[in-house]
């Protein structure tokens, strides 16, 4: 049995023929082992080289990712440091201006106070001189002299109280001015921060715009492939605002209608797209308007009609296009059948019940609503301005009356009377205020 098996194996053992003598050489294990080992060694070396190259590229990618992360962190730190430095500089400058303004105001009030004191001293000197001249004639009027001295004391108290009130008011006004300046600078800083955020948003918007152009090209190819008889043309930049115009043609090439397409590839839905696309639809004379967007309104899952505009997800674009296109073709065929059979009254009726008349009425109503909103805003602004100016005028009148009263208390009858600030005018003014309120 073993001999037979050996003979059978020898009969099926692989062989090679010598190219010179054509002698048959058997490929035994001892002869093929070095070749197999050499082949295995070269294979393992190539595999190790590929593994090393993959590891090197992986390490390079990791280092590049770390470098990008470090650069981003450094930029954020620089922005924060620059904003903090700018904020501290602005605050320091405004604080310095406020201190200088307060010092100047206090100095001015001090000069006014000194002038008032000089006037009072001159009046006291004149009063003392008059008292000395009349001392011999009015010795029996000591009671009257005591009353005059009491009056002088009262005047001094009023002057002191008025000066203190003026100083307190000046400090309050200076503090309020400083607070307003600091608030204005804080608002400037916030505006700069909003500007930075707007620049970041515009950078992201640029990327989204590129993605939207890709979606627009995909939509054009999809429509051309599905409707080869229709005219699919992109809308030029700055012409309408939509992306694609589809001229629907019937089987015989007869124009059946226009579909206006607009693609959106953003993260959030905006209702403002609807009004804008309706305006584009009216300008282009399109029968149907569609918005293809990944972000849909909350109440729409796949596609739906919203305020006269069809809204659909990109995966539903083709089914919706098929349905709307067939509807336009059916309406066009019915219109062709009825042509030549309508009277003027029927034509007017079809115009009034058609798409163009509805679009024109919607445009008029939308513009009227916009004008009414603008008018309401202007009315509210003017009412606020009138109330503000009325308050300012009343404040000026009150301050003027108070200042005149203080001066009359100091100077007495030497202060000339101002007819416009007498009691009758003030009573009339208060009565008008009550009527206005």
UniProtKB/TrEMBL annotation:
Coiled coil feature spans: 47-85, 113-157, 182-209
Lineage, highest ranks first: Bacteria, Pseudomonadati, Pseudomonadota, Alphaproteobacteria, Hyphomicrobiales
Domain of life of the source: Bacteria
Name by which UniProt lists this protein: DUF2130 domain-containing protein
Organism (species): Bradyrhizobium zhanjiangense
Keywords noted in UniProt: Coiled coil
InterPro entries for this protein: DUF2130 (IPR019219)
């Amino acid at each position: 049995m073993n001999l037979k098996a050996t003979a059978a194996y020898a009969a099926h053992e692989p062989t090679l023929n010598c190219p010179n003598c054509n002698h048959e050489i058997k490929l035994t294990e001892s002869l093929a082992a070095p070749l197999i080992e050499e082949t295995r060694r070269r294979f393992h070396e190539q595999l190790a080289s590929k593994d090393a190259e993959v590891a090197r590229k992986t390490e390079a990618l990791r280092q590049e990712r770390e470098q990008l992360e470090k650069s981003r962190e450094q930029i954020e730190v620089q922005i924060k440091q620059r904003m903090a430095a700018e904020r501290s500089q602005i605050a320091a400058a405004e604080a310095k201006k406020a201190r200088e303004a307060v010092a100047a105001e206090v100095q001015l009030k001090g000069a006014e106070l000194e002038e008032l004191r000089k006037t009072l001293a001159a009046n006291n000197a004149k009063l003392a001189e008059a008292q000395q001249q009349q001392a011999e004639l009015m010795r029996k009027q000591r009671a009257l002299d005591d009353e005059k001295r009491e009056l002088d004391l009262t005047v001094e108290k009023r002057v002191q109280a008025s000066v203190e009130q003026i100083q307190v008011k000046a400090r309050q006004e200076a503090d309020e001015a400083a607070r307003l300046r600091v608030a204005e600078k804080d608002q400037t800083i916030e505006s700069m921060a909003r500007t930075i955020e707007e620049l970041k948003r515009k950078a992201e918007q640029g990327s989204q715009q590129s993605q939207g152009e890709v979606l627009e090209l995909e939509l054009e190819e999809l429509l051309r492939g599905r409707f080869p008889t229709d005219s699919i043309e992109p809308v030029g930049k700055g012409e309408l605002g939509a992306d694609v115009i589809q001229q629907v043609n019937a089987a015989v090439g007869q124009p059946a209608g226009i579909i206006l397409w607009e693609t959106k590839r953003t993260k959030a839905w905006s209702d403002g797209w609807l009004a804008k696309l309706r305006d584009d639809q009216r300008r282009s004379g399109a029968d149907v308007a569609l918005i293809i967007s990944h972000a849909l309104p909350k109440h729409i899952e796949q596609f739906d009609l919203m305020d006269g505009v069809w809204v659909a997800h990109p995966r539903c674009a083709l089914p919706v296009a098929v349905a709307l296109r067939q509807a336009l073709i059916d309406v066009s065929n019915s219109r062709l059948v009825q042509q030549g059979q309508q009277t003027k009254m029927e034509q007017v009726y079809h115009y009034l019940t058609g798409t163009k008349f509805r679009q024109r009425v919607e445009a008029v109503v939308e513009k009227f609503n916009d004008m009414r909103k603008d008018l309401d805003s202007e009315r509210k602004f003017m009412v606020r301005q009138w109330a503000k100016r009325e308050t300012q005028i009343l404040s000026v009148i009150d301050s003027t009356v108070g200042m005149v009263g203080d001066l009359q208390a100091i100077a007495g009858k030497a202060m000339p009377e101002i007819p416009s600030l007498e009691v009758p005018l003030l009573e009339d003014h208060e009565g008008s205020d009550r009527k206005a309120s």
